[in-house]
Each structure stands twice: as structure tokens, then as C-alpha cells.
Design a protein that fits this description.
Shape of chain A: flat
CATH architecture of the largest domain in chain B: Orthogonal Bundle
Helix content of chain B: over 70%
Order of helices and strands of chain B: HHHHHHHHHHHHH
Distance between the termini of chain A: 18 Å
CATH superfamily of chain A: MetI-like
Radius of gyration of chain B: 24 Å
Number of strands of chain B: 0
Strand order of the largest sheet of chain A: 1-2
Largest interface: A-B, 94 and 96 residues
Helix content of chain A: over 70%
CATH superfamily of the largest domain in chain B: MetI-like
Number of helices of chain A: 12
Structural class of chain B: mainly alpha
Number of domains of chain B: 2
CATH class of the largest domain in chain B: Mainly Alpha
Strand content of chain B: under 5%
Oligomer: heterodimer
Order of helices and strands of chain A: HEEHHHHHHHHHHH
Chain lengths: 297, 279
């Protein structure tokens, strides 16, 4: 995308500066500064309810996090959610895309209907599923009874609550993977498949030797994007269980919110955020790595 | 088609079955929300749950007008629209700079502008809460607008850079020879030629701003409360006894996205895949 043949200017001498300036100022004020502020907060003991000044405590918050079993459990919930949601969504989305690819060519409406959940507000999705799961009058329990199953309080029992939320997440986000894989599939050159067919390759061989390698990169990237979002899932859990019953579905995001805005321990909450951020960056690092690898090919 | 009937039998039937199951799985939950919102009160708690009803808009009137919940949707429209327009202006300028000029550190700065992908908004919630409180902007539209612009910028820069780079260089060079300034080239040539991209970025940005929950939950309480927060707090509060009202709020919250999906699906999907794959 080289637009001019001149050698690159310094930014300060380039006309680009004026165009970039508003955004740079914006990022500085609303992204970089708050991020640094979070780091500073994480070294302070500060409860904003009691109008006291923040006290510098160094790494004490982090030392406490190492011992805080409630935080460990919250991280476990977040990771569990991330792995199960991403795994199942990738499998469902990819399989559907491969199966439906031919059927969907030129059928925009059908594709749109299948994609719909991913465009819906997560709060609304949480609400929808909360109504569906409702223990006494919800339709799912009614259908379950028709099938001879016992009525169950899916969201109210600590063994099933997380799975009930996962179903809602899978409902919403499998279409996202489906969409990305479908785009990748439809980008495979027809001539390539034709050539293989003429050379006598069977359907399975074509799938294994052409289709699969051509979509693997996309599947991987899609999985990482989903994983990063799933790790910090908030609205669905907040709406459907609020972290309960007990602490069964208390994810790290929920715990940060509780710590900072119910107990008003902003310093401790900030240190939790930093730990989450570091974990997210590890995932993001894997993502960038993959992009670089793909760039080299 | 006159292909062999055997092929027709197996494959078509299996694919048809998958399609039907998939559509029921996808559509039933949304349909149930809709039917809940239009059921007359006495049918709401009927067993077995009614799947077909004679629709009434009385619940809509009750919650939106009588209980005055329409205000939260007006708030959402004001906030999402303002944030989208402002972010489009700031973002388009930056995207043009990235697409048009080569300068040292361009890749680094571009990477910086995508920082939102690396550091999700979540990580800045606590300091932004303290900042907003400090400048006394709690529960105001302006606070959410300012914050949402920051969230929308990466998305917009990413999409628009791609579109601006596709504007033929010759057109810009001709305009330059005719005496246009950089800014004039941008507003008179590049922007009009990239309407599709701007629309795609705008739709996606609006939907993102409309759907934001976390910051709206923490930073608003009443005057600037947005639709998702109104829905969320209603679920926690009286929602589980007022199913009809809950259904109405749910439907109204997803309505803008549904409309975009019907009329602008191409842009929405394009923005989403581009954002995901090139990010």
C-alpha cells in the first residue's frame, strides 16, 4: 500500500500529523492515561466509600491476590468459560459452515437468519435465555417435561448454572465462527478444487488437502478472537445469575465489579484487572504470532 | 435440476433437516421474546406456554409510555448516534493519514490506534469511573459519548483505512494539481468515494455503542441511563414478575440491530469480518 515514491518523512514533517492528531490526543486521554492510572491504583489501598486518601502499599495487593481463593475461583470460572465456549463454538461453527457452504451460496436471507444471534445485544440474549430457563413457567421446562424429564432450575443450581450460560453464549457466538469460516470457504478458488477433481481426487481428499488447510488460519484467528471476548464475559452472567448461585458462576469480571463497585475497594479491584490484562495479553500474543506467521507464508 | 434422484434423496434431505433444526434453534428464542412482548397479560403465565397469540400492543404502551421507559431509548439513540458521528470524523481523518502518507513510525502508530483490541475497555473501567466522578459528569450523556468514541475508534480506523487505500491515487493527484489542499482532497474526493466504507463503519460503530453495557451500568443511574442498562436493571428488579414488560424492553433493545440486519446486512457483515480478520 505504498502511495508515494518519496522516502518516508518524519511524522512531525508529514502532512499526516494534522490528520492523526485528534485521534492521538484521544487515545492518550481515554486509553493510555486510564491504563497507567489502573497500574498506579493497583499499588494503592483505597476504599472510596470512606473518603480517605489512597495509601501506597506497593505490591501488597498482588501478594493478597496470590492468597485470595475467591479470586482463584473467579479466574477458574473465566478460564473454564473461555475454553468450553470457544471450543464448542469453533466446532459447531466450523462444521456448520463446511456442511452449509454449498447450500448457502446466493441465499443471503437464510444466511442472515442463521447469523442473527451474533448481532443481538448480550443483555437481551441473557434476558431471552433467562425467560426460556424460568423454572416453573419457562418453555424449556415445559418441553423437558414433554420429553419425560424432570423440571429443573438450570440457572438456580450450582452444578448446571454455568452450562446454562454457556448454552446462551454458544447460541449467540457460534454464528460468528460460522461467518468467518464461511467467508474463508467461499474465498477458496474454484479452479483449485476443479484441478484437484480432474486429477482424480475424491471428496474426502479435497477436503483434507485443500479445504482444511485453506481455512485453518481463519479458524485459529476466529478462535482466539472468541477466546479473548469469552474470557471477560460479563453481561450474560450478570443478567442470568449475577455470579450465583453462591459463587458458582462468579467470573473474574464479575468479581472485579463486585470488588470495585460494591465493596468500593478500587485499589484491589485494579490489581485484579491488571492480572486479567496480563493473562489476556498472553492470548493476544499468540494471536499476533499467528498473524506474523501467516504474513510470512 | 435433473441430477440423479439418489443424490437428491440423501443429501438434500439431510441438508434440509439440518437447515430446519438450525433455523428453529436460532429463531425460537427470539420469537419467544417477541411473543412474550405481545401476549395479553392473562396468557403470560399460562401452562402450557402459548406459542401463538392474538397480538396486542398494550404492554408496549404500558411500559414505554405509562412507565416512561421510552426515555432510556431516547438516551441510547442520542449517545450512540453522537459517539458514532464524532468517532467517524476523528477516525476517518486518522485512517486517511495511514492510507495516504508514508512516515516513520506509521506501523507503530497504527498498532497504537488498535490498542482497544489489546486492552479491552474493561481494563480502564475503574480509572474512568474515578475520572468521570472527578469532573462531575456522572449520569450525563456527554460522559458516555466521550468514552464510547474511544471504544469505536479502533474499529473505524481499521475499516476506513482499507477503504481509503482503495481510492485511486490518480484522482487525488489530479485534485492536487487543480490546487486542492490535503484537507479538500480528503473531504471532496476521498470521503465521497468511500461512502460504502463509511456506512459500514458507521453501522458497526452505532451497534457497538448501542450495545455497550458495562460503562453505562457504572456511569449512569437515571438521567442518562441507556436501553441495555434499563433492561438489565429491570431483569434484576421486577422483571421476573413482569414478563410482558421484560419482553418489550428486550425487543426494543434488539430492534435497531434487527433493522440494520434486514436493510444493511451487507455492511454489517463486511464490517464484522474485516474487523475480525484484519485486526
Amino acid at each position: 500500500m505504498v502511495r508515494t515514491l518519496e522516502r518516508p518523512h518524519r511524522l512531525l514533517a508529514s502532512p499526516a500529523l494534522l490528520f492523526l492528531l485528534p485521534m492521538l490526543v484521544y487515545i492518550l486521554v481515554w486509553r493510555i492515561f486510564p491504563l497507567l492510572y489502573t497500574v498506579v491504583l493497583s499499588t494503592q489501598s483505597w476504599n472510596i466509600m470512606y473518603r480517605r486518601e489512597p495509601v501506597f502499599v506497593g505490591l501488597q495487593n498482588y501478594a493478597e491476590l496470590v492468597r485470595d481463593t475467591r479470586f482463584h475461583h473467579a479466574l477458574y470460572v473465566s478460564f473454564f468459560f473461555m475454553f468450553v465456549a470457544t471450543g464448542l463454538e469453533v466446532i459447531i461453527g466450523t462444521v456448520l459452515a463446511v456442511v452449509m457452504d454449498e447450500v448457502l451460496r446466493g441465499k443471503g436471507v437464510l444466511r442472515g437468519l442463521i447469523l442473527m444471534p451474533m448481532f443481538l445485544n448480550p443483555v437481551a440474549v441473557g434476558t431471552i435465555w433467562k425467560i426460556l430457563y424460568e423454572p416453573s413457567l419457562g418453555p424449556l421446562n415445559y418441553f423437558a417435561q414433554l420429553l419425560g424429564m424432570q423440571k429443573a432450575n438450570w440457572l438456580g443450581s450450582s452444578s448446571t448454572a454455568i452450562w446454562a450460560i454457556l448454552v446462551a453464549d454458544i447460541w449467540q457466538w457460534s454464528p460468528f465462527i460460522f461467518l468467518l469460516v464461511l467467508s474463508a470457504l467461499q474465498g477458496i478458488p474454484v479452479t483449485l478444487v476443479e484441478a484437484a477433481r480432474i486429477d482424480g481426487a475424491g471428496k474426502l481428499t479435497i477436503f483434507r488437502k485443500i479445504t482444511l488447510p485453506m481455512i485453518m488460519g481463519t479458524v485459529f484467528v476466529a478462535a482466539l478472537l472468541r477466546a479473548m471476548d469469552a474470557f471477560r464475559v460479563f453481561p450474560k452472567i450478570y443478567i442470568m445469575t449475577g455470579g450465583g448461585p453462591g459463587r458458582a458462576t462468579e467470573s473474574a469480571s464479575i468479581l472485579v465489579m463486585t470488588t470495585a463497585f460494591r465493596y468500593f475497594e478500587v485499589g484491589y479491584g485494579a490489581s485484579m484487572t491488571i492480572v486479567m490484562l496480563i493473562l489476556l495479553m498472553i492470548v493476544y500474543g499468540a494471536y499476533l504470532n499467528q498473524r506474523l506467521l501467516r504474513g510470512k507464508q | 435440476m435433473l441430477t440423479g434422484s439418489k443424490v437428491f434423496n440423501y443429501k438434500t434431505i439431510i441438508v434440509l433437516m439440518i437447515t430446519v433444526v438450525l433455523l428453529i434453534w436460532t429463531l425460537f428464542p427470539v420469537y419467544y421474546l417477541f411473543i412474550t412482548s405481545v401476549k395479553p397479560a392473562r396468557e403470560l403465565f399460562a401452562t402450557p406456554p402459548r406459542l401463538i397469540t392474538k397480538p396486542t400492543l398494550s404492554t408496549y404502551h404500558n411500559i414505554l409510555i405509562e412507565q416512561r421507559f421510552y426515555r432510556f431509548f431516547v438516551n441510547s439513540i442520542i449517545i450512540a448516534l453522537s459517539a458514532t458521528v464524532l468517532a467517524l470524523i476523528i477516525g476517518a481523518l486518522a485512517a486517511y493519514a495511514f492510507a495516504q502518507w508514508k512516515f516513520r513510525g506509521r506501523e507503530g502508530l497504527f498498532f497504537l490506534s488498535l490498542i482497544g483490541r489489546m486492552f479491552p475497555p474493561f481494563t480502564t473501567l475503574i480509572p474512568i469511573y474515578l475520572m468521570v466522578k472527578q469532573v462531575r459528569l456522572m449520569d450525563t450523556h456527554i460522559a458516555l459519548i466521550l468514552i464510547y468514541i474511544a471504544f469505536l475508534l479502533p474499529l473505524i480506523v481499521l475499516i476506513l483505512r482499507e477503504f481509503f487505500a482503495n481510492v485511486p491515487t490518480e484522482i487525488c493527484e489530479c485534485a492536487r494539481i487543480d490546487g486542492c489542499s490535503n484537507f479538500q482532497i480528503f473531504t471532496r474526493m476521498v470521503v465521497p468515494l468511500s461512502v460504502n466504507g463509511i456506512l459500514a463503519a458507521g453501522v458497526l460503530a452505532f451497534v457497538n455503542a448501542w450495545d455497550e453495557f458495562l460503562f453505562a451500568l457504572i456511569l449512569t443511574s437515571f438521567r442518562a441511563k441507556t436501553a441495555p442498562v434499563a433492561l438489565g436493571t429491570f431483569v434484576e428488579g421486577e422483571g421476573m414478575v413482569q414478563w410482558g414488560q421484560l419482553g418489550v424492553l428486550g425487543i426494543c433493545t434488539i430492534l435497531p440491530t434487527l433493522l440494520f440486519m434486514v436493510f444493511l446486512q451487507k455492511f454489517l457483515v463486511r464490517g464484522m469480518t474485516l474487523g475480525a480478520l484484519k485486526g
